[in-house]
Amino acid sequence: MPTPTPHHPVPVLETAHLWLRGYSPADLPAFVAMFQQPEFYRYLTGKPMSEEDVWSTLMRSAGHWTLRGFGFWAVEEKATGRFIGSIGFVDRKRTLEPAIGEAPEIGWVLDSAVHGKGYATEAVRAVLAWGDAHFQGARTVCLMDPANEASRRVAEKFGYREYARTTYHGEPAVLLERPAQR
Known about the structure:
Blueprint: E1 13-14, E2 18-21, H1 28-34, H2 38-41, H3 51-68, E3 72-77, E4 83-90, E5 105-110, H4 119-134, E6 140-144, H5 149-157, E7 161-168, E8 171-178
Antiparallel strand pairs: 1-2, 2-3, 3-4, 4-5, 6-8, 7-8
């Protein structure tokens, strides 16, 4: 008989303005709507995503939590209860040069309607605190479009620095790293 895979529940994180929680099927319509906004998908997919593809994204995150003990959180605005984006860590086994290896990869994306409110900074701070405890302060990395200046500024606030330029799926990409936190 196979050994059962452990299930890792998604912890809920709270910040001044946000709840970071596991995804719910109720998040799908808002997430699909976000993936129709050029400001939202410009640095992610470069094109809108279908409901089927967005659903696969949500399911992949649930799988990360189950298999790896980490993944993405849904970002909910406390004041409105609205689902406004995603943030978290992944292990996508990306085919890249240089390879990311075992370093957890952080990423975030927020609805363009809430850009400029400091929510990305607030969410990244909470997720990195969780990650530093969960990963025993290990090095983490971030992959982004070189033109995504706003996300780059957020990453740099938390000590991420560029260590390589590469190509991912035929598009230019920059790799940033945050050294182990002791």
